Amino acid sequence: MILIAMACYLVIFNCGRSRRDRDRISAGREFGVEAGDQLNLLVNTSEGNVDEQKFTVRGIFSTGTTSYDKGVVFLPLAKAQSFSGATNHASMIFILLNDREQADAVSAAIKGEGYQVETWRELNELLVLINDFSNAYLTILNLIILGVTATVIVNTLLMSVFERTREIGILSAIGMKGRQIIALFLAEATLLALSGITFGSLIGWAISAYFSKVGVYFGDLGMSQDMLLNDRIYTELTLDSAINLIVTAFIITIIASLYPARMASRMEPVEALHGAK
Fold first, then answer.
1. How far apart are CA 73 and CA 87, in angstroms?
2. Which one of 46, 101, 164, 195 is separated from 123 by 20 to 30 angstroms, measured CA to CA?
């Protein structure tokens, strides 16, 4: 369990340090200090006064978030309590779970009088809201892309029907039934879908794999009480989302090909042969 009390961006942890280490801290990389340097820290005490003490930097940490790394230091719980006059108290206790989906169950199990229990969703309402908004935006964007894909498929197959009017008329004249002509165009649409999906999946996987390693650099986005973001945002391609998009794209392609296939199957042989001249 990690015990954290926020006071002028001091992060306190209970790690069983020796008495000799109580005047030593770990500072963020953006402070521009090195191990062995000294920092003066100011803190508002529990009595409302301002106290200042000098600490020796014991180590340097980096979280990948510039605002956090240049505004946070770690120090032992016992020293922080004596420094701030909080005696044997902590203003906040963070519990780190292996599975974040268990947050609601753990929150319900430890609720009691005299303290307030909040889950990570309640502490990051703005971040959760932005995540939900981005998911909705991506859904709309995917629908637009799929709509464009359907339009392209319909246009391609319609051009194929017009270019093969004579062939369609000959096939109908020699006895090919309408459902067989529909199956012929559906087979062509299936090949188009499979080739497009394969090519698009490979390109999408390569781009996602690249940015999952390199990330997209946004710089210092600042640190607020509601949200804390890394300087780089990394992509993550999940299996379920990839399968959903692939299946949806395939189904839409087949549905979009029904109109041209139906149009070709209803051509009369004589009119098709006459119109092809």
1. 20
2. 46
How many Å apart are CA 29 and CA 25, to the nearest integer?
13
pLDDT score recorded for residue 224:
55
Q: Are 197 and 247 in contact (CB under 8 A)?
A: no
**CA distance to 2, 119, 135, 219, 224, per residue, from 127 (Å):** 22, 13, 12, 18, 11
- Angstrom distance (rounded) from CA 177 to CA 173: 9
* Ramachandran region, residue 39 (left: φ > 0; alpha: ψ -120 to 50; beta: rest): beta
C-beta separation of 3 from 86 below 8 A: no
Instruction: Answer yes or no: pTM beyond 0.70.
Output: no
Is residue 31 within 8 Å of 61, Cβ to Cβ?
no
> Nearest-CA neighbor of 22 among 60, 61, 71, 58?
58
Measure the CA–CA gap between 78 and 107, rounded to whole angstroms.
Answer: 27
Return all residues near 62 (Cβ < 8 A) that are at least 6 apart.
Answer: 28, 29, 69
- pLDDT averages per 10-residue partition of the chain, 277 residues: 36 46 69 80 76 82 76 79 76 82 86 81 80 87 86 86 80 81 87 89 92 82 61 84 88 88 78 59
